[in-house]
Amino acid sequence: MSTQALVLTDNAANKVRQLRDSEGNEALMLRVYVTGGGCSGFSYGFNFAESVNEDDAKFENGDVTMLVDSLSYQYLVGSKVDYVEGLEGSRFIVENPNAT
Length: 100
What we know:
The chain has helices spanning 10-23, 70-76, and strands at residues 6-8, 29-35, 43-49, 57-61, 64-68, 79-86, 89-95. The longest helix is centred in the N-terminal third of the chain and has 14 residues, at 10-23. The chain contains two helices and seven strands. By secondary structure, it is α/β, with parallel strands linked by helices. The strands form two sheets. It has a four-stranded mixed beta sheet.
């Protein structure tokens, strides 16, 4: 069984696929990044990208690609990116075993 440094769950990949299809742009990839600071520490951001930057790491689930820049990568190693729907709304989340 191979383990990836980051995992894009099936739920997250399915949501990206739906959003990509609704935009009519098969080139869209999910970008995950860490934003700094403050008293609450790091937070995670998500957006869509159409191109891969030179320092990006790529992770795939089927035909869906997730990108992580080299600075964020060091904080996200071992994490799982998921998509959840619940009482608080729908959103992408990062399950990071390294976060304290």
